[in-house]
Specification:
With about 130 residues, the protein is mostly helical. It has one domain. About 90% of the residues lie in helices and about 0% in strands. The chain contains two helices and no strands. About 0% of the residues are buried.
Length: about 130
């Protein structure tokens, strides 16, 4: 049992109250004992309330820690997804650059072929004249 358990504290107060009742008759001393008993009972109730508040605060802290852990996991997942997206975007960009380069080469070859064809046509035309 906890040393400050409400039940133990109440039992001690009850025992001391009973002892005081037996050792004193009545009158001012008895009234004084009643005041002490009331103060002790009030202190026990305040201690119990404080323990309850502490327990509730501890539970709230545990809940907050769980929520923080969950949010941190979500943040890590979001960062990983962002890194993956950036990597895929870089791959896509590189692939597009390769494709553009390939198309530019094909265009240059087509222009060269066109120029050669025009030159040949000019030469043929000149030869026929």
């Amino acid at each position: 049992a906890k040393p400050f358990s409400t039940g133990i504290l109440k039992a001690k107060v009850a025992v001391f109250t009973e002892i005081n009742k037996e050792s004193t008759d009545s009158g001012p001393a008895n009234e004084e004992n009643m005041q002490v008993e009331a103060k002790a009972q009030h202190a026990a109730e305040e201690a119990a309330a404080a323990r309850g508040e502490a327990k509730a605060a501890k539970e709230r802290a545990a809940t907050m820690e769980q929520e923080l852990s969950k949010v941190q996991k979500e943040l890590e997942q979001a960062r990983a997804a962002e890194a993956t997206a950036e990597e895929k975007a870089a791959e896509c960009s590189a692939a597009m650059e390769d494709k553009v380069s390939e198309i530019q080469k094909e265009l240059e070859q087509a222009r060269a072929a066109e120029a050669a064809a025009e030159e040949m046509a000019t030469e043929c035309s000149a030869a026929m004249e």
